Amino acid sequence: MRIVFLGPPGSGKGTQAKLLAERLKVPAISTGDILRAAVKDRTPLGLQAQAIMEKGELVSDALIVSLIRDRVAQTDARGGFILDGFPRTLEQGRALETLLLEAGEGLSAAVNFEVPESALVDRMAGRARAEGRADDRPETFRERLRVYREKTEPLQAFYAERGLLAGVDGVGTVEAVAARVDEALAAVRRPENRA
Ligand code: AMP
């Protein structure tokens, strides 16, 4: 299955992507993790992305799309993948659609994690303390949330139009949310997209 995970920062999609990847035996591909590794290793990509990430803004579509194009072409992603944190703009959504079409493939579903803003702010304060992620600090987090509403939220309509959107209530234990992901996927999977 080829699945994208949508949802605001702190909605738990990273945790759920890793768990679903284990269940489906496909890789969970997180653009945020790839970028953080590049920053840590001081690669050219990392040097370009670092300041943008620290401000809570989005790295350019061209850069991210080329990164994803290379990653989904790797052998471990042939049988499917879960994309966590990509696409984040309509431009990225269209680019993904095109690159999959070129390969004769399509998405199976777009899972959207729904979590109220008050819960997100609490979760992020906790993660900022536990993991020390600079972009989880309250000021930067608020900016990430603003960027999410402006740039990423329109992807919900984009995938709803294609019959691929599956909403999941993201409030609850990790296990409860994982069970809802399975139910949502069973409901949205279209026979022609099964892989
Ligand atoms: P994440 O771990 O998914 O919250 O990503 C952390 C940061 O990496 C984001 O705030 C952006 O600066 C950058 N980033 C991750 N994925 C993308 C993407 N698909 N497009 C643009 N920027 C991204």
Task: Provide an overview of this structure.
With about 200 residues, the chain is α/β, with parallel strands linked by helices. The protein has one domain (about 1-190): Rossmann fold (3-Layer(aba) Sandwich), CATH 3.40.50.300. Helices cover about 55% and strands about 10% of the residues. It has helices at about 15-25, 30-40, 45-55, 60-70, 90-100, 115-130, 140-150, 155-160, 175-190; strands spanning about 1-5, 30, 80-85, 110-115, 165-170. It has a five-stranded parallel sheet with strand order 2-3-1-4-5, with helices on both faces. Helix 1 (about 15-25) crosses helix 9 (about 175-190). The termini are close together. The mean pLDDT is about 95. Adenosine monophosphate (AMP) binds near residues 59 and 92.
CATH architecture name? 3-Layer(aba) Sandwich
Total count of strands: 5
Bound molecules: adenosine monophosphate
So, the CATH homologous superfamily? P-loop containing nucleotide triphosphate hydrolases
Strand order of the largest sheet: 2-3-1-4-5
Q: What structural class is derived from the secondary structure elements?
A: alpha/beta
Radius of gyration: 16 Å
Largest sheet: 5 strands, parallel
Strand content: 5-15%
Fraction of residues in helix: 55-70%
What is the N-to-C order of secondary-structure elements (H for helix, E for strand)?
EHEHHHEHEHHHEH
User: Residue ranges: pLDDT <50 for 5 or more in a row?
Assistant: none
- Number of self-contained structural domains: 1
Find the CATH topology.
Rossmann fold
Mind telling me the CATH class?
Alpha Beta
Please give the alpha-carbon distance between the first and last residues. Answer: 5 Å
* Total number of helices: 9
Overall shape: globular
